[in-house]
Amino acid sequence: MKVLMVSWEYPPVVVGGLGRHVYQLATALAAAGHEVVVLSRRPSGTDPSSHPSTDEIAQDVRVVAAAQDPHEFDFGADMMAWTLAMGHSMVRAGLAIKGPRNQPWRPDVVHAHDWLVAHPAIALAEYFDVPLVSTIHATEAGRHSGWVSGQISRQVHAVESWLVRESDSLITCSASMSDEITELFGPGLTEIRVIRNGINAALWPFARRQPRNGPAQLMYLGRLEYEKGIHDAIAALPRIRRTHPGTTLTIAGERGALVEAGSLAGLMLIGLSCGLPLSGAAAEPAAASTTDVVSGAWQHHNVTFSYYGVTALFTCDGLEDHVRQILLHLGARKDLTVYANGCPGPINTPSNSAFVHADFYALAPAAGADGSDRVMARWTALEVTPRRPGFMGDGDCELIQGMKDIITKNFSLRDVEYRTSCFPHSISMDGFAVKGQALKALPLNPNAAKG
Length: 451
Prior knowledge:
By secondary structure, the protein is α/β, with parallel strands linked by helices. It folds into 3 domains: 2-194, 3-Layer(aba) Sandwich (Rossmann fold); 221-280, no CATH class; 293-445, no CATH class. The protein has helices at 17-31, 79-95, 118-128, 140-143, 151-166, 175-185, 230-243, 257-260, 263-272, 316-330, 397-404; strands at residues 2-6, 35-41, 54-58, 61-66, 109-113, 132-135, 169-172, 192-194, 217-221, 248-253, 278-280, 293-307, 337-341, 354-365, 375-384, 413-421, 431-441. A hairpin with a 2-residue loop joins strand 3 (54-58) and strand 4 (61-66). Helix 2 packs parallel to helix 3 (118-128) and helix 7 runs parallel beside helix 9 (263-272). The radius of gyration is 25 Å and the shape is globular.
């Protein structure tokens, strides 16, 4: 069988696990006797003059890497434009593939990997008039706990839906992803096959564990990205150490979004107070400044507010998760609970009558509090916009507006500037910005790790 595999990453251009997955699949199919051509791309930030398209054989796999058209698009700031430009280059490279004696080459099947290659994969499958198989590795809704709010997220969600419905067969790497696709894009989808990822144990040196009596040792190995959940592992250390004293967590991994955004430094300070060894390129925690350090005390709050959101798509789980992240960003203690009701079932049906209930602890200045109740805290710069922190989006304007008068008054904020201008059904006209300072617990204080 002649297989045209379309992927936005393939060695040496590897961003994450998808590139490794496609590499292992392509080489295994080639070893089984199939003719495999992988259509991928040249490295980001290059152009045809420095990095022209290549057509090479590696481990019996033919790898066609399309040159990036000269442009000024940035993947982070111009994701859709960048993706479409990449897709255009890949389509031209795919149509130019030649077979023996310089004859046009035609695959028996096109295999797409995730939404980033939806346009070239669908175009090539239609041109060659062959079946399209798509492996869906993750979804935009899944990456954000069911929350599809900002303009980019909604665009990604739409492209995912299009790719899924254009495919003649679907593959996922887990049963849970299969269920997620059915819930998001069903009913009426083609058959979904679950083919689980595996591990080549021969590549991992192994030595039988020796008996030991010391504290438990945990280890994280992987990219330092929000989706990987390393922040949850670090935040759980205090609770783990209550029942397993002395437990340590070793982090070994490459820089990722958590490090680039500076979010990992505070988490590492929590970890260092719990015996957290740090390894690899990310082991660079910054010392906490003592500027504006004051005494604080936790105060309990229980509030309810209505959310008449029509520009953001959400499920109740997604809305709860989003509010929870905003509360934590404002300085709430980690043992908070958030509950939403009145949300719709399908993710693409926005609600205009959701209610959110939040039970949380927030810090208040407490210079005269007893020593046992005092928490060392610091006035910390606060900014909430459609781009900061990373989980916010354009469609969150109405959420911020709904929380403004009910929620934020329960936090210790100073020098705050609000700007909200929400226009339902018109995300491009939405605007919001909350800037100032918030009183937050210093992470090295044991009381900051409660819950």
